[in-house]
Amino acid sequence: MQLEINADLAEMRAAVRRFTQDQLEPIAHEIDLTGEVPERTVPLLREHGYLGMRMPAEFGGGDFDLPTYCLVLEEFSRSHRIFTLMLDATSGLNPIAIARFGTRGQQERYLTGLCTGTLHASFALTEPDAGSDAQAIKTRAEPRGDGWVLDGRKHYISGAHLADVVLVMAVTDAKKRGRGGITAFLVDKNTPGFSVTRVDTTIGSDPIKLAELSFENCELSSASVLGEVGQGFKVAMESLTSGRMGVACSCVGAADRLLEMSAAYAKERYTFGKPLADRQAIQWMLADSATELATVRALVYETLRRIDAGEDVGSAASMCKLSASEMVGRVADRAVQIHGGMGLVRGFPVERFYRDVRHYRVGEGSSEIQRMMIAREVLR
Ligand SMILES: Cc1cc2nc3c(=O)[nH]c(=O)nc-3n(C[C@H](O)[C@H](O)[C@H](O)COP(=O)(O)OP(=O)(O)OC[C@H]3O[C@@H](n4cnc5c(N)ncnc54)[C@H](O)[C@@H]3O)c2cc1C
Fold first, then answer.
1. Spelled out in words, what is the top-level CATH class assigned to the domain 121-236?
2. What is the mean pLDDT of residues 318-333?
């Protein structure tokens, strides 16, 4: 059973899947062997129109809607999580924030590079004492002369060690905090006082790295403020719904591939003279994964259709992110079990998927935070 978002996207899916299988999957194997993303990857994605998909055409973007973008995320995540991150770098929070809130000067300086993958941006909100409780950030920006001076630390910032510009959230009014006291700043990589102090490798694939950043007496001009002073939370929250839907679709794609690999292996692997596929214990695992995947997919596609129709979906995007990220964790666990030893050995995709999908329950608002928001709406 293949549910679809709409008829047009059903047609497009076949072409994206072909591209993923023929062009991206060999790169995924290379990444597994070397731990590095080959240099030809960005030009390949650019050449096929996959970079900057959601950004304005004026800056080299594709002007695609959210459902189309999510379909591509879903298909790419059938191969390697890194490809979805590369899409997000050119169409996600940072470029969207600059397109929406930036001055003409900021847009011209950063957007074409971000949309085409020649510039890299990171988003720095999380700190050692402020993760889920983002309003507790301590990094502060004080006015000095015509500009600002930034002091503080950030950690777990995706790809910030490679970023040309970092979008940094800092407190500008300690009394107001989330209600007008946090401001977004664009900090270029060579700004004196800004440094990358550590790079962490996670449970996920090697190229997916998180960086710790330090800002010490880091002087910024007034032109580095993105949006209005005190509008930082608005900037950060702007792409929340699309971010959650993007994660949900990536989880659906990863689960789809895991189920496909599990079914294929169950048919080819013989134990005690019969294929695993003939065993009820294995069939039930496949059935549970297929049912959970179809249920989540239906919720995610229905929510995408409502967003596309301009509806306010309330906490539905949180429900999608929560249910999809929890579902893919269970599907990955069953896939490892069905593959036995092969599911645990480095270099086989199932093992890599199992590690990569663990990120989804923590990043972009953990499962507990999604539940908190859903419950808030239920109790209102
Ligand atoms: C792969 C990855 C990429 C990331 N990239 C970025 C990035 O680019 N930029 C950025 O700014 N941050 C990034 N983060 C950080 C991420 O946003 C935080 O890890 C996340 O918000 C959780 O914060 P924390 O790690 O401090 O955990 P904590 O907030 O300390 O939470 C610890 C645990 O307690 C739970 N918890 C917290 N509060 C409650 C509560 N009130 N009730 C019940 N349970 C609760 C949480 O769900 C979690 O399970 C990334 C994280 C990951 C894993």
1. mainly beta
2. 98
Contact 115, 190 (CB under 8 A): no
- For the Cβ of 366 lying below 6 angstroms from any atom of ligand 1, the answer is yes
Residue pLDDT, tens place only, 329-356:
999 999 999 999 999 999 899 999 999 9
Note whether 140 and 174 are within 8 A (CB): yes
Average pLDDT over residues 196-222: 96
> Could you give the CA distance from residue 8 to residue 10 in angstroms, rounded to a whole number?
5
- The β-bridge relationship of strands 182-188 and 225-226 is antiparallel
Q: In Å, how far are 118, 277, 299, 353 from 121, measured between CA atoms?
A: 10, 46, 31, 25
**For the chain, what are the domain ranges?**
7-116, 121-236, 238-379
Reported CATH class of domain 238-379: mainly alpha
% of the chain beyond a pLDDT of 90: 95
- 364 flagged as catalytic: yes
What's the gap in Å between 210 CA and the centre of ligand 1? 13
- List pLDDT tens digits, range 90-129: 999 999 999 999 999 999 999 999 999 999 999 999 999 9
Is the pLDDT at 321 greater than 80, yes or no? Answer: yes
What's the CA gap between 82 and 87, in Å, rounded? 9
Find where tokens 């109790």 sit.
Answer: 379
Architecture of the domain made up of 7-116 = Orthogonal Bundle (1.10)
Selected catalytic residue, list 30, 219, 364, 377: 364
Tell which residue, 89, 217, 84, 83, has the closest CA to residue 142: 217
